[in-house]
Design a protein that fits this description.
Length: about 300
Amino acid sequence: MVTNDPPPEPFSGQLDRLGVEILLTPFAHRPPEGYARVWGASLYHLDAMRALRGRAGVQVFTEPDVLCVRPLDRLIARVGDAVGAQRERLEDCAKPGTRKLDEYWELCTPMHIELGEPTADHEYFNASVYVIPERWAPVLGERIDKAWQLSMARHEQGERGFFTDEHFMNYALRGTPVREMSSDVRVIPTAPYRRYLTDRDIILGLTLWNLPHEKDLGFQRMYRDAVDPRSWFWTSSPQEFRRRAGAMLSVTRRTPQRALLNACGDVVEKLTTERMQGRLRPVYTRMVQLTASLRPR
């Protein structure tokens, strides 16, 4: 676990008992005040990559909302000598009615040209999982540094720069061979909108489940089991693990708690504006806190 601050108790002791290595490294890519409205903390991923540079072998980076449900050997073998990245369609991941896709291209098109790329056309990769062989770490680091300098210069001139780790990485990956990983890694939406991946066989065949909507619900319910070395999380068979994790995280079937939240979300989405939804966010957060305490059997 790469972090800029030591975890407090009881988390520190729990991680130590599980054999988790804690690597402290500063948040050097912290965006300046007023740089971006959202996702500023995602840039810490760039510091985590720098901190792990020089370690032999292959680094597999995941965000906190990713669950590993199979050994990583198959994924690493498929990636080979390239850099592994997760391709997702922005139009699938983005919330209906938002301009995330348009905003991405409006920002990245001029930036890639200014950074010396012959064209602005490039593949969009999700930033949740990367598999990086050591040989490509310096190349990625150099391109990230170049993009960071340009982003800071644009900010000083009152213009926008890259503000998420995927912005920086999608540029950096243009300098390396890339192996797409959708056969092993997928976003699995569990929110009321865009539940586009529901095929049980596909889901159970993946190596990593990316569950962005379960940060404050499913993963909270799972935490007590995850930090207990005697629980099913660590002792069950691979098949039983995927079955129980899938049920707890609303992956293979929706829990009553998730069904309730989604039903409320459907009504709010249809009857309110995006501005009003922002005002209702504290109410939704409180509902999540209450339902997260209800553990499925």
